[in-house]
């Protein structure tokens, strides 16, 4: 399926096709194009540029008008523990309130408690919880 996103207010994070990666000082600058378009064919970006250079909308199966909107790359979370049983935000509040890790563990919290909970949760339940989290991440734009 051929798709075009057009009238993009600002297309952010563009790189020349030949760029494999950025590192060091190269990462200080984020390139963008105002009043842009982006084309996609079979889930692969095929072209982008200024709207003045855009192909005819008639050539596309799906057309997305991004007037007054920005298009940015997905956020890539490099440190994700997506499969877990239970949450620890209560412990985060305890840390803010000055409790030590030892005090939190004495109250039944901490990483050992999380490990035990993970170990004792049925695999089907872990799968269901993890799938829900993965779908939420994708919906929110995480790559």
Helix-strand makeup class: alpha/beta
Shape estimate:
elongated
Determine the mean pLDDT: 91
The DSSP helix count reads 4
Radius of gyration (CA) equals 22 Å
Biggest β-sheet, characterized? 5 strands, mixed
From the N-terminal CA to the C-terminal CA, the straight-line distance is 21 Å
Which ranges are low-confidence, i.e. pLDDT below 50, for 5 or more consecutive residues? Answer: none
> Which sequence of SSEs, written as H and E, runs from N to C?
EEEEEHHHH
Amount of beta strand: 15-25%
Helix content: 25-40%
Strand elements, count: 5
Could you please describe the fold and organization of this structure?
The protein is of the alpha/beta class and 143 residues long. The chain is built from 4 helices and 5 strands; from the N terminus they run βββββαααα. The chain has helices at residues 89-96, 101-106, 111-120, 123-139; strands spanning 2-12, 32-41, 44-50, 62-65, 70-71. Strand 2 and strand 3 (44-50) form a beta hairpin. The longest helix is centred in the C-terminal third of the chain and has 17 residues, at 123-139. The chain is elongated.
Blueprint (SSEs and pairs):
Layout: E1 2-12, E2 32-41, E3 44-50, E4 62-65, E5 70-71, H1 89-96, H2 101-106, H3 111-120, H4 123-139
Parallel strand pairs: 1-4, 1-5
Antiparallel strand pairs: 1-2, 2-3
Please summarize what this structure is.
It contains 4 helices and 5 strands.
Features:
143 residues; alpha/beta; elongated
């Amino acid at each position: 399926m051929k798709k075009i996103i057009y009238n993009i207010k600002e297309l952010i994070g563009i790189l020349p096709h030949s760029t494999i990666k950025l590192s060091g000082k190269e990462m200080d600058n984020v390139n963008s194009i105002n009043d842009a378009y982006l084309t996609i064919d079979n889930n692969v970006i095929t072209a982008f540029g200024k709207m003045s250079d855009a192909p005819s909308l008639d050539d596309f199966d799906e057309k997305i008008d991004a007037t007054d909107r920005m298009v940015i790359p997905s956020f890539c979370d490099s440190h994700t523990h997506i499969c877990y049983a239970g949450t620890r935000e209560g412990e985060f509040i305890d840390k803010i309130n000055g409790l030590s890790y030892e005090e939190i563990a004495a109250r039944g919290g901490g990483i050992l408690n999380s490990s035990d909970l993970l170990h004792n949760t049925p695999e089907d339940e872990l799968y269901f919880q993890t799938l829900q989290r993965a779908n939420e991440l994708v919906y929110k734009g995480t790559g």
